[in-house]
Hints:
two-stranded antiparallel sheet, alpha+beta, 10% strand
Amino acid sequence: MTDNETLLSVGGAAKLIGHGISAKDISVLFYGGALRDDLCPVVAGRRLIPLNYVATIAAALRRRGKLPQVSQIGDGGHLG
């Protein structure tokens, strides 16, 4: 992470992805080892997620069937 990089909480990442994804959906991926803890450390009880890692989270959610495939997504205004 760089000093001036935008960081999100797990809830913020879930909101950005949209499609009904919850903070718990994302947390399960971290605690299950599907996402990298070294890039998204827990600091003072909060996980810090770089904005540029949200696409990786969305891809992991797609692989697990939590998000529709990219070809199935209309312009809903969400990253996911």
